[in-house]
């Protein structure tokens, strides 16, 4: 309908233009003619009567004036016929784009298929139940880096991960830089803290207010302590030069506004480390909301979040919580072994499959290219003399034994494959 109107408008405007030009030409001709006859009559040469010449001149001037006005109108309307439809079209297009984005946004929030990460400002998301402890992280939203830093939390949905966020103001960024002892603002990305506040913006305000007098470059152990009130050498009235013992300060009083995940506090981590230290393992806490158990004996590592849930790929015997791993390491007995005397036995068991030999770094197992074990290339697995792998996470480790990978499990796995191969041939 709109296109038909525009087409008729253009045709009418074109007719007005042509008519105006004709009127201008006709008026100009009559004007010169009428004025000429009038001047000749006054000079005594009367071709037509003077009064008729006067009428012709007046009519011609009126026609020329009308023509000029009509032409000017045609030009203006012609310009409008281009600009107005484009303006209307652009408004229509913008409305359609906005409606399309709204539909896409809703479809995106539905998150059908895999679980994508969806970002939503806090004011668009209904408030959740209070009295829960939320983990907040400082983030940069990809594609909107010009907005600067934001703070958000992840809400797990059945079909997506919903990130609820608020933008950070300059004063908040400055306070967080001081708390985390980061001069470069980009280094703040990924830093985490806990809060009961449902609003990310309120959570930052509460967190920075509780630590407003704390300077991270001085005494990290004093973070959140109500006894801390100064800077430089004066830290608190009880310990003027700070608490420098290996254990944590017994007089530390935590600000009630600060809340923590189950395994977020340094004091808790220190207590757990005391339990697993004899088994050559230790827990390290990171500012990004994660923990890592480093097993120095097996060269393995296990990642958790501050609430104690396993989030890494590696695991032991189906264990899934930090506390279960602490119990495992606390009770683990390390028995020193030396498998260098078993080389001949291993070669006998793995005849036709692999060769085992001593090397400069320990024991190496060279697996021969063999279709029965899905290995078409020669691969070398390296172990210490006690059977612990030097590289527990290398890509050549067989999927079936990757969570219990050592010299004995590899030999056992290859031996089963060898027996299976012989049974197929027979």
Gross geometry: elongated
- Name the quaternary structure: single chain
Measure the end-to-end span: 83 Å
Strand residue percentage: 5-15%
In the sheet with the most strands, the strands line up as 1-4-3-2-5
Number of strands: 11
Q: How would you describe this protein?
A:
- The protein is built from 8 helices and 11 strands.
- It is an alpha+beta fold.
- It folds into 4 domains: 2-106; 117-212, no CATH class; 266-331, no CATH class; 339-425, no CATH class.
- Residues 1-6, 77-113 and 422-426 have low confidence and may be disordered.
List keywords for this structure.
about 425 residues; alpha+beta; 5-stranded mixed β-sheet; 3-stranded antiparallel β-sheet; elongated; disordered N terminus; disordered C terminus
How would you concisely characterize the structure shown here?
The chain has 8 helices and 11 strands. With 426 residues, the chain is an alpha+beta fold.
Topology of this protein?
Layout lengths: L1 H41 L7 H61 L6 E5 L12 E6 L10 E7 L4 E7 L2 H10 L12 E4 L4 H11 L55 H11 L4 E5 L4 E6 L4 E6 L16 H10 L11 H7 L4 E5 L4 E5 L11 E5 L23 H19 L1
Helix pairs in contact: 1-2, 5-6
